């Protein structure tokens, strides 16, 4: 579970996002990060039993993303993120691709999964899988329980034009035009600090597991 002190640190970081404050509170950051690493380790152990492609040997330290922002090409010059991100890959230890993703942020925590902005080769393969086996995907994303947890799968970024190789009147054009194939579910602060936070997170992951299987099969 996440300690309330971890959320407190992130809340204060929002109003004090500068190197001087961060260095003065480095010990608090280190404790918060260790707390997040502990949660990641617990989630990995439980999630492996649901989805064996999430390796039980994943290093939780490497799954917790850097809090330092890359500001080289950003108008926002604040040096630190105001959240902790946890990437849980399903393809060995390489982050990205088809994965589960957990973000810890006061009032804005969430669990997500799927494939965000696939590389060109994978995007082509996923579209081909949708074209061939759309009913399999639609059974997953149209399921009432799935929609209740994650909302409308089709309501994410789409191409403004028809993807190359497909007709505009294709019955599944709304799925073929998607740029990403992700879902997310918000987590309340009281949920992430609860004793069974890892269990709750993994339970939600189990509901999006079929989507990840569909996507993994597409790019296999």
UniProtKB/TrEMBL annotation:
InterPro entries linked: CHP02453, UCP028451
UniProt superkingdom: Bacteria
Cited Pfam families: DUF2461 (PF09365)
Record-given protein name: DUF2461 domain-containing protein
Source taxonomy: Bacteria, Pseudomonadati, Bacteroidota, Sphingobacteriia, Sphingobacteriales
């Amino acid at each position: 579970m996440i300690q309330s002190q971890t959320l407190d640190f992130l809340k204060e970081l929002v109003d004090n996002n500068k190197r001087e404050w961060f260095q003065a509170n480095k010990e608090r950051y280190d404790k918060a990060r260790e707390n997040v690493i502990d949660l990641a380790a617990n989630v990995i152990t439980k999630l492996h039993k649901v989805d064996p492609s999430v390796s039980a040997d994943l290093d939780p330290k490497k799954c917790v993303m850097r809090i330092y922002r890359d500001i080289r090409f950003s108008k926002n010059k604040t040096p630190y993120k105001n959240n902790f991100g946890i990437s849980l890959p399903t393809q060995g230890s390489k982050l990205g691709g088809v994965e589960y993703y957990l973000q810890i942020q006061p009032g804005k925590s969430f669990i997500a999964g799927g494939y965000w902005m696939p590389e060109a080769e994978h995007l082509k393969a996923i579209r081909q899988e949708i074209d061939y086996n759309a009913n399999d995907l639609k059974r997953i994303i149209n399921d009432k329980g799935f929609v209740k947890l994650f909302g409308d799968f089709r309501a994410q970024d789409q191409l403004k034009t028809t993807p190359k190789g497909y007709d505009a009147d294709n019955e599944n054009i709304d799925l073929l035009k998607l740029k990403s194939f992700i879902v997310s579910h918000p987590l309340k602060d009281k949920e992430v600090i609860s004793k069974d936070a890892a269990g709750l997170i993994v339970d939600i992951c189990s509901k999006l597991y079929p989507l990840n299987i569909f996507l993994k099969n597409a790019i296999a």
